[in-house]
Predict the 3D structure of the following.
Amino acid sequence: MHCIRWQYRFSHQRRSTWIPPLLCAVAFLIFFIYFCPDYTNPGDPVDEFDKNVCMCGRCKPKPLRTPWFEQHFNGSIKPLLVGKDQVIPDHVLKWWLKLQGLNNASHIPWVLEQLFKVIPSGNPYEEQYNRPCRSCAVVGNSGNLKSSRHGEKIDSHSFVIRMNGARTSGFETDVGSRTTHHFMYPESAVHLPHGVHLVLIPFKLQDLRWITSALSTGDIKLHVCYSNMYVLCLSLQVLIFNPAFLKYIHDNWTNHHGKYPSTGMLALFFALHICDEISVFGFGADQKGNWHHYWENNRFAGAFRWTGVHNAEFESKLIAALAQEGRLKFYR
Ligand SMILES: *[C@@H]1O[C@H](CO)[C@@H](O)[C@H](O)[C@H]1NC(C)=O
Ligand SMILES: *[C@@H]1O[C@H](CO)[C@@H](O)[C@H](O)[C@H]1NC(C)=O
Ligand SMILES: *[C@@H]1O[C@H](CO)[C@@H](O)[C@H](O)[C@H]1NC(C)=O
């Protein structure tokens, strides 16, 4: 606007008619260089790069936060329960108790106190500064992993997250051999090899008592340590999924499809909150549209398409949307 006015004023003096356009051009150039740094180098991606989040330099810039993502993502909700004094908000408690048919929350502080006597307090993923880059492979159990030959790629991630009945022995070429985190609940528990973090999903308060008791008495069905320090050794490996995070995924991402989100969704959003780069394998139907586990021979089992509690097709669309946003890489 200033430029236009100057131009008007100066237009009566013939000799200096070149000044206003020049001033305009210089002003524009200065504005361009100082206020639009993203456009000064067209070779750079136009993404926002928060170097505080990722110090390794190998990480790709964080994708731009679109309104859709912004509306759903809430970074202040912590994925893990990390201490006996952690506050579980009332609306979460109410929902969580209802899920298990209870209405009395009065002994929850006691349950948490007992739990954190046998597992360590503290959040291992709190450090967001000066930490190495975290690339995560979230590996579902879908039959689409069969003959995929993704094994090597999966194993190359810093974290390899598996769930429920996942197995690797005999399927290494397609699913890899490493596991750093295994998501499960008591009913889906499997034997875990040494060094794997068990991420327990407490669908019920009883599940917290189960892990407490199993760790205290050593009767948990996990082969972890062969020393006398069985309990101590094992307890270092256990992480507890936060019921508040469970509700957050249910409310904000899976939009109340199903009674609660599937284990796969829980693992995926855990990764979305703690990893810099995410690759997703083994989700959805196989190439022929069948839903089964990669270790099952009956590809027509339709094992987990409509389980009554989850809505697998909705979850597939959600993953596709996150891939579209550049939040994760989806491998088929
Ligand atoms: C994110 O979660 C916190 C804790 O539950 C809540 O106080 C806050 O309002 C949430 N943010 C948004 C944008 O909903
Ligand atoms: C909840 O249980 C405790 C003890 O188990 C009991 O003292 C309390 O009255 C109960 N509260 C309600 C609202 O039922
Ligand atoms: C998540 O869902 C809750 C409850 O439906 C809502 O109040 C909140 O605004 C949503 N968004 C975020 C970012 O938490």
Remarks:
- The longest strand covers residues 135-139.
- The first helix runs from residue 2 to 10.
- DSSP finds 13 helices and eight strands in the chain.
- Confidence is low (pLDDT under 50) at residues 1-13, 31-57, 221-236, 303-309.
